[in-house]
Amino acid sequence: MLHIVDIQSAAFPANQPDRPPKAIPVTKSVLPSLDEYMNEIRELWTSGWLTNNGAKHQQLERELVDYLGVEHVSLFTNGHLALEAAIEALGLTGEVITTPFTFASTSHALIRKGLTPVYGDIRPDDFTLDASKLERLITAKTSAILPVHVYGNVCDVEMIEAIAKRHNLKVIYDAAHTFGVNVNGRGIGTYGDVSMFSFHATKVFHTIEGGALTYNDPALKSRFDQLKNFGITGPETVQAPGGNAKMNEFQAAMGLCNLRHIDETIARRKRVREQYDALLKDVQGVRILTPQPGVETNHSYYPIILTAEQNRRDELHDALAQEGIFTRKYFYPLVTDYAWNQNRFASRRTPVAREIAERVLTLPLYPDLALEDVTRICTMIQERVKT
Ligand SMILES: *Cc1c(COP(=O)(O)O)cnc(C)c1O
Q1: Per-residue pLDDT band at 200 (split at 50, 70, 90)
Q2: Which of 129, 192, 326, 382 could form a disulfide with 147 if both were Cys (CB 3.0 to 4.6 A apart)?
Q3: Residue 209 alpha carbon, nearest atom of ligand 1
């Protein structure tokens, strides 16, 4: 039995005491039972080992290698710092081609590591970086590509690999949304040089805060260990000016508990997703995403695109909120429209990303969302897009 609580964030007004009785947040964190978690952390009181590559940390890394079907896993205290570590370990320089249709973390990691993001457009069907438009963005300064597997949709990994090979570029995937996703039976984390997974409380699998890098090259392991622990390699040896990004034992314990239930979590998300699909697929003015061939997804988000010529996305968002149904304009604004990004880089047009950002609405999706509530949400959407 999974227990699910409201997200504790101002972004989710469902926690307010005066909320309407049937308020539905856009997402909720999955929790194991309190007993299960207590059992998992009990031995920490005996060992006294709370962080720095403890027993839970080691066990979670091993279990994730199996579950994700990857060669190597390194855990971090969150996904963002994992991404910064990947950028640093691969020694990226100059320009990195990425997408404006993502969470702030992707571009911010590049900027914070002294790199210049170059923005490519996305594909209209799955919202991932359009690989067919990548090569024209490559210059003498380009060192890597940083695509994002948006909403659990996977990028064109084959074409990206071919381009990277041809131009001798590194590839880091932001796989924050694709925990447990497989492509043609292969773990998504095996593609590219490194993939970053986020284990934040709102993600399909979480360790409260947390993240991981997956990679095929075993030599990266010690680099990541140094970067997340001050560059310390022994009691009296410090190899590199590393920072601190270690996952602690309480986080790892939460991960071990949540991993026991992950198949049920994903199956219950699938149930919700299928109900949305059935009720929205024929609604005029609404476009839903179609499954990608060969991809076993994790049903992490449910975005819809409003297609009517007169775009009334914001009105729909506000009308649903009035009824206690909290949706998100995810991802809006584009990263290229952030205040810090204004006129900062040679701006390239990304018309598809712009159109999608202005028309997308992400609907509530979490494992115990009642199917009656999904029906209610779909009825409201249908009534409002009609008029
Ligand atoms: C959640 C997320 C991140 C950052 O992960 P944290 O674990 O919150 O640091 C990065 N990229 C994307 C696309 C995300 O959704």
Answers
A1: very high
A2: 129
A3: 7
Q: Range(s) for CATH 3.40.640.10 in the chain?
A: 34-260
- CATH 3.90.1150.10 in the chain, residues? 262-386
Find the mean pLDDT for residues 111-137.
97
**Cα 330 to averaged position of ligand 1 atoms, centre (Å):** 13
Q: Which whole number is the average pLDDT over 102-108?
A: 97
Give 10's pLDDT tier (boundaries 50, 70, 90): very low
Mean pLDDT computed over every residue of the chain: 93
335 Cα to the center of ligand 1, angstroms = 14
Question: For domain 34-260, which architecture applies?
Answer: 3-Layer(aba) Sandwich (3.40)
- Number of neighbours of residue 90 by Cβ within 10 angstroms: 19
**85 ligand 1 Cβ < 6 A:** no
Ligand 1 pocket, mutate which of 27, 103, 194, 209 (most atoms under 8 A from CB): 103
Cβ of 102 below 6 Å from ligand 1? yes
pLDDT category of residue 18 using cuts at 50, 70 and 90: low
Q: What are the DSSP calls for 177-241, one per residue?
A: T-TT-EETTEEGGGSSSEEEEE--TTSSS--SS-EEEEES-TTHHHHHHHHHBTTEEETTEE-S-
With CA atoms as reference, report the closest residue to 113 among 147, 142, 145, 81. Answer: 81
- For residue 343, the model assigns a pLDDT of 73
Give yes or no for residue 204 CB within 6 A of ligand 1: no
Tell the CATH topology of 262-386: Aspartate Aminotransferase, domain 1 (3.90.1150)
